[in-house]
């Protein structure tokens, strides 16, 4: 390890402010010592963001820091877990301390909001890449698994869909990017409270990262069921409605991705419990369809006609 890397790690250690009693040993030794609460199961998820692949190269360092943790917390949320700890692996082209400080501004802001302690990591020289691992707890019997959707369940989604993809569309077109859409792309809000409130209420759950239809298809395949979705029931923000109409908007909502909302299924007699969970978490939820016997995701408009079946790229969801 070079002196420069040591300085960076020391910088990171000083900024890893969240203290937790269950961290017996954090940054500074060969490994961390962590205490899992009795009766709980450890939940672990990891996700990597590569420059130019997972975020535009000119993305602000603080936004990269926020998003690197947010996409991981979103995975814990989708399991119904309570986040506790994380590790951070940084590959940096030039080890610029100012960049690391700005990165940590975003990263630590979100970590503090969820009481997550940074307990270790790795710092290397290379193309810009950020890999985070998060650890949390859940009662395994209540964990929200992809394979738990059942014929007759309602299909729900939290928040609104398509905003992040809309920002990316505007960015690719070289157009002015609506600031609230850009916020959804750069600073996704992981639905941690909702996931926890849904544990024991919902059946299957997944976080929407690749696009609603792709991710719902994962749930259907894992559960051995199909789903019927009303594309016109998908929730849209004001900003999305203002900037995009008709099929362009439906496409962003159904297939855009980077939403980090939760898509989940629950028995229809759990509707009040789902609404109560959403209210407790302070997040809106919308019923967008039904789980059915069979396979594939059947997408229809509010008029009942199949949607998108004549446009390339849709068939593989059916
Ligand atoms: P080792 O050679 O044992 O891998 P390192 O020099 O890589 O040790 O790391 C020293 C300590 O600093 C370890 O506790 C490690 O977890 C921590 N660390 C290194 N990089 C980071 C980082 N980017 N974020 C948080 N902790 C880090
Ligand atoms: Mg190391």
Describe the structure.
Helix content is 36%, strand content 24%. The chain has 318 residues and is an alpha+beta fold. The chain has two domains: 3-138, 60s Ribosomal Protein L30, Chain: A; 153-300, Phosphoribosyl-aminoimidazole Synthetase, Chain A, domain 2 (Alpha-Beta Complex), CATH 3.90.650. Helix 6 (192-198) packs antiparallel against helix 10. The longest helix is centred in the first third of the chain and has 19 residues, at 61-79. It is globular, with a radius of gyration of 20 Å. 45% of the residues are buried. The model is unreliable at 309-318 (pLDDT under 50). The protein binds adenosine-5'-diphosphate and magnesium ion. Adenosine-5'-diphosphate is lined by residues 1, 9, 12, 27-30, 88, 90, 118, 120-123. Adenosine-5'-diphosphate (ADP) binds at residues 1, 9, 12, 27-30, 88, 90, 118, 120-123. Mg(2+) 2 binds at residues 47, 75. It comes from Lysobacter dokdonensis DS-58. It catalyses: thiamine phosphate + ATP = thiamine diphosphate + ADP. Pathway: Cofactor biosynthesis; thiamine diphosphate biosynthesis; thiamine diphosphate from thiamine phosphate: step 1/1.
């Amino acid at each position: 390890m070079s002196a420069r890397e040591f300085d960076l790690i020391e910088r990171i250690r000083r900024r890893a402010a969240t203290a937790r009693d269950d961290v017996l040993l954090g940054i500074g030794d060969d490994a961390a010592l962590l205490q899992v609460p009795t009766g709980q199961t450890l939940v672990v998820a990891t996700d990597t963001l590569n420059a130019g692949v997972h975020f535009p190269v000119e993305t602000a360092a603080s936004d990269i820091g926020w998003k690197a943790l947010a996409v991981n917390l979103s995975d814990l949320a989708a399991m119904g877990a309570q986040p506790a700890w994380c590790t951070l692996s940084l590959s940096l082209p030039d080890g610029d301390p100012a960049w690391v400080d700005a990165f940590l501004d975003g990263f630590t802001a979100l970590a503090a909001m969820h009481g997550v302690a940074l307990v270790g990591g790795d710092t290397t020289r290379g193309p810009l890449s950020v890999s985070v691992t998060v650890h949390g707890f859940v009662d395994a019997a209540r964990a929200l698994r992809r394979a738990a959707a059942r014929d007759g369940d309602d299909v729900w989604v939290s928040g609104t869909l398509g905003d992040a993809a809309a920002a990316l569309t505007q960015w690719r077109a070289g157009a002015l990017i609506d600031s609230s859409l850009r916020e959804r792309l750069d600073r996704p809000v992981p639905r941690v409270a909702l996931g926890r409130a849904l544990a024991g209420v919902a059946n299957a759950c997944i976080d929407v990262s690749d696009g609603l239809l792709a991710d719902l298809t994962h749930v259907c395949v894992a559960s051995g069921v199909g789903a019927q979705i009303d594309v016109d029931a998908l929730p849209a923000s004001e900003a999305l409605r203002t900037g995009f109409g008709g099929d362009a908007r439906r496409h962003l909502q159904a297939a855009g991705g980077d939403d980090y909302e939760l898509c989940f299924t629950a028995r229809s007699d759990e509707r009040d419990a789902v609404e109560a969970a959403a209210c407790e978490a302070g997040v809106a939820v919308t019923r967008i369809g039904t789980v059915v016997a069979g396979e594939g995701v059947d997408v229809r408009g509010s008029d009942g006609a199949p949607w998108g079946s004549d446009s390339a790229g849709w068939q593989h969801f059916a």
